[in-house]
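Colleagues,

For the teaching module next term, I've prepared a clean inverse folding example: a structure given as tokens, and then the sequence designed for it. I'd like students to try predicting residues themselves before seeing the answer, so please don't circulate the second half yet.
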């Protein structure tokens, strides 16, 4: 059997029918191409999706690995990368899929073959809810590496409600022409291709960032430190819904998500800025959570939206008082 040119690694945790349908679309594309393999890692799903994935994979070259516990995104992705046979990896979230009738893989392979200066290649994400409007995905997908100043602007909402519109546009590459390639410091791992040799040499995702969030920021920081670079590939596009880990029954609720996100931010700060940064990062989390609680309680949104926002704000505030291990201090 000819070795594949690209290995797609997808991690599922209670992804429901959406994950099954998206994996099926990716598997069908891989089958048509013949030079792509798909590795599915299931993190002990309990919603029936793993059984449906197994049925979909039966009789195909798709490799499904069923974990007995939820390893988290980073460790499961590392497990998938360890099984990969191709020189190029594509980490693809289960809530992302190719556009109908499109092949987003060929542009990635072409860029990797042509571009010796880059080790990472970033497809563009489009909004699943409104494919013609990509602003939400554009804001989410690419960022410059976080700094203490940019963290403060984001946590205190300066980038949204005060003078920081320009900071946000620059910090999230919103001033870049998406039709041409450009270098990116910190791409989201929702759809991210990386040369396998480089990924393994850098140690993969740091498995301390569990179950998810900040592991891709940490990888981007190590990329930069090693002199490696990411570039966008405009010809490669995936439709991405986003928020799948907190969107359905059996998955994370908003408050829990924000607590995990804040705790992993503290882990990132300790690793990259030193233990001395933790007091002011905690102060930012507490202040940011309090500001969001006040805004949510003001009643300017509908009841359902206000409840979700309140839960998120509570989680952000509470994360300031967690140890890095996740327990209350």
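(Answer key — instructors only)
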């Amino acid at each position: 059997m000819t070795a594949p040119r690209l290995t797609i690694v997808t991690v599922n945790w209670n992804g429901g029918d959406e994950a099954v349908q998206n994996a099926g679309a990716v598997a069908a594309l891989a089958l048509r191409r013949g030079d792509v393999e798909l590795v599915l890692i299931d993190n002990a799903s309990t919603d029936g999706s793993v059984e449906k994935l197994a049925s979909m994979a039966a009789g195909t070259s798709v490799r499904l690995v069923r974990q007995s516990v939820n390893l988290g995104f980073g460790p499961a992705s590392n497990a998938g990368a360890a099984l990969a046979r191709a020189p190029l990896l594509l980490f693809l979230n289960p809530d992302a899929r190719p556009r109908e009738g499109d092949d987003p893989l060929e542009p990635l392979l072409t860029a990797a073959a042509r571009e010796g200066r880059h080790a990472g290649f970033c497809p563009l994400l489009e909004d699943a809810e409104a494919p013609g409007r990509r602003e939400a995905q554009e804001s989410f997908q690419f960022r410059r590496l976080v700094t203490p100043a940019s963290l403060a602007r984001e946590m205190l909402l300066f980038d949204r409600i005060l003078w920081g519109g320009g900071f946000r546009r620059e910090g999230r590459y919103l001033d870049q022409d998406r039709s041409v390639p450009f270098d990116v410091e910190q791409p989201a791992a929702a759809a991210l291709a990386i040369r396998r040799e480089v990924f393994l040499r850098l140690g993969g995702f740091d498995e301390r960032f569990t179950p998810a969030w900040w592991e891709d920021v940490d990888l981007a920081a190590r990329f930069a430190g090693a002199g490696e670079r990411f570039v966008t590939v405009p010809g490669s596009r995936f439709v991405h819904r986003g928020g799948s880990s907190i969107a359905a029954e059996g998955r994370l609720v908003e408050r829990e998500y924000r607590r995990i996100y804040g705790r992993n931010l503290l882990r990132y700060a300790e690793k990259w800025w030193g233990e001395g940064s933790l007091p002011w990062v905690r102060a930012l989390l507490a202040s940011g959570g309090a500001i969001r609680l006040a805004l949510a309680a003001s009643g300017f949104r509908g009841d359902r939206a206000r409840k979700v926002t309140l839960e998120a704000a509570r989680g952000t505030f509470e994360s300031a008082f967690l140890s890095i291990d996740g327990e209350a201090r």
